Amino acid sequence: MAVFMDLNVSFLPDRSDLRSVVETAAHLGFSTIALNYVFEPTAKKKQEIPTPTPINELIDQLPVVQGRSRPIRVLNRLTVVMSDASHFRPNAPEYRRFDLLAVQPTSEKLFHAACMVYDIDIICVPMTEKLPFFFKRAPINGAIDRGVVFEVSYSAAIRDSTMRRYTIANAVSLMESCKGKSVILSSAAQKALELRGPYDVTNLALLFGLSDGDAKEAVSSTCRAALLHAETRRTASGIIYTTRSQQEAPQGSVDGETPEAKRAKPT
């Protein structure tokens, strides 16, 4: 049985709204979600990278996933919106607070760097506006070879008809270059009503140009691969977690570390 994931659910400061989103995700059958903290630096003033709030401080008891006997797993993710190369800080200690690290480049040069250089897990494709650049196959293949995945989010298409056109056009453009491989589908939901069930999302993915098989992988196995990549990245950078709850640990791991992560440790 497939394990479904949504690795981009907007972090909401209102606890009631956040609880509603988490409960809806569990009811729809998502076993894992990632609360997304967005960091968008500007040149006008210095900004602090946000600090994730532990989920047990936000929700007393996590809801049980529909059709399963275990509670939903909630991770933390940071997305850096980049309009300049200086906005990404390699090896920044603040990045280590998060389970997943993503960037959203706003130019072709930054997109190329994200694909080929930056030590990240996810590259976000903007969905709310016309792409400011064209996708090229070489950097996309470079990202795929490094285990980095591309993210297409769908909630913007629900909010506005103009954004719906941008979402479909940008997603189709990406699929033509990556052939539907190494793509994850996420909601980027800001409220519970913007969440859709895994099978509805896979149907929507057909509009983006994904095959039926690639669409199912985009909400399951490719998400799992992104989590394994993140675990290996954090371990390889020398961070060792000595205390992690079972709720935070990826499935199939022991004491919060996957076998892949353990093999990546220096001996």
From TrEMBL:
Question: Entry's InterPro entries?
Answer: Pol/histidinol_Pase-like (IPR016195), Ribosomal_uS2_CS (IPR018130), RNase_P_p30 (IPR002738)
Spell out the Pfam families in the cross-references.
RNase_P_p30
Q: Please verify whether the record's keywords include Nucleus.
A: yes
Q: Which GO terms describe its biological process?
A: rRNA processing; translation; tRNA processing
The main location class comes to: nucleus
Q: Where in the cell is it found?
A: Nucleus, Nucleolus
The parts of the chain that form a coiled coil are none
Q: What is the similarity comment for this entry?
A: Belongs to the eukaryotic/archaeal RNase P protein component 3 family.
Could you give the subunit structure recorded for this chain?
Answer: Component of nuclear RNase P and RNase MRP ribonucleoproteins. RNase P consists of a catalytic RNA moiety and about 10 protein subunits; POP1, POP4, POP5, POP7, RPP14, RPP21, RPP25, RPP30, RPP38 and RPP40. Within the RNase P complex, POP1, POP7 and RPP25 form the 'finger' subcomplex, POP5, RPP14, RPP40 and homodimeric RPP30 form the 'palm' subcomplex, and RPP21, POP4 and RPP38 form the 'wrist' subcomplex. All subunits of the RNase P complex interact with the catalytic RNA. Several subunits of RNase P are also part of the RNase MRP complex.
Indicate what this protein is called per its UniProt record: Ribonuclease P protein subunit p30
